[in-house]
Amino acid sequence: MASVRATIVDGDNTLWKGGAIAGIGASLILQELRRLHFSSVINVMAAERGISKVLRKYSGIEGKLMGQELLYQMLASSGIARRDDLSRFAANYIRNNAVGSVCNIVSAELYKGNPVFLVTASGTSAAMFARSGLFNIPLTDFRSNVELFNGPGVLIGFRSEITSGAEKLDAAEQMLNAYGLRVRDCQVIGDSELDLPLMKASLRPIASPFATERVRELCKIILPRK
């Protein structure tokens, strides 16, 4: 029987509970309130109400990705979001919402010296922190959607590179190729339909505690929430 050579893990609702961008938005509102920048708070809250309408209209991954892109667009147009702040907010959110059962697998694989890769539709700030700040040993590499900043470090845009399961699989394959690995060498931990092509191509699909029914049906291993 073939053995697992590497691990691929998703971000939102897998390595951490919930969506990183929601945590970033909430932290930004709190920061602007403390600075008495009430117009910025009003703009962010208005954007979040608009996102809520999108989520009610479009279910599942489609709504989530549209909502994420809308919030980043608003933050970019407002000029209030800086790289350091977004990275700090993402770090705090992920640290406070890390999923224990998933982190235990990742920690064990890293301790054994096996590569662990993060492939997520979240932004770069969340991906970079998960690679370097959540474990004593950094994750091997990551692929994510990308926050764009100008020279002074102010957010000016957002580039969506992972918007479907096919794109997520392709991003993972390109990354693994640089390490002499293939998806079928890996165990994949995921939660949503966005992960299904990657999980189906893997040696061992594992459902996160927050996985959808379709993902659970595919997996023999379903992780507990603790």
Describe the model.
With 226 residues, the chain is an alpha/beta fold. It has nine helices and eight strands. A six-stranded parallel sheet has the order 3-2-1-6-7-8, with helices on both faces. Helix 4 (83-97) crosses helix 6. It is elongated, with a radius of gyration of 17 Å. The two termini are 30 Å apart.
SSE string:
EHHHHHEHEEEHEHEHE
Distance between the termini: 30 Å
Total helices: the number is 9
Describe the global form.
Answer: elongated
Largest sheet: 6 strands, parallel
Essential attributes:
six-stranded parallel beta sheet, single chain, 226 residues, 8 strands, elongated, alpha/beta, two-stranded antiparallel sheet
A few lines on this structure:
With 226 residues, the protein is of the alpha/beta class. It is built from 9 helices and 8 strands.
List the SSEs and their pairings:
Elements: E1 6-9, H1 20-34, H2 38-57, H3 60-78, H4 83-97, H5 100-111, E2 116-119, H6 124-132, E3 141-143, E4 146-149, E5 155-159, H7 165-177, E6 186-190, H8 196-200, E7 204-207, H9 213-218, E8 221-222
Parallel strand pairs: 1-2, 1-6, 2-3, 6-7, 7-8
Antiparallel strand pairs: 4-5
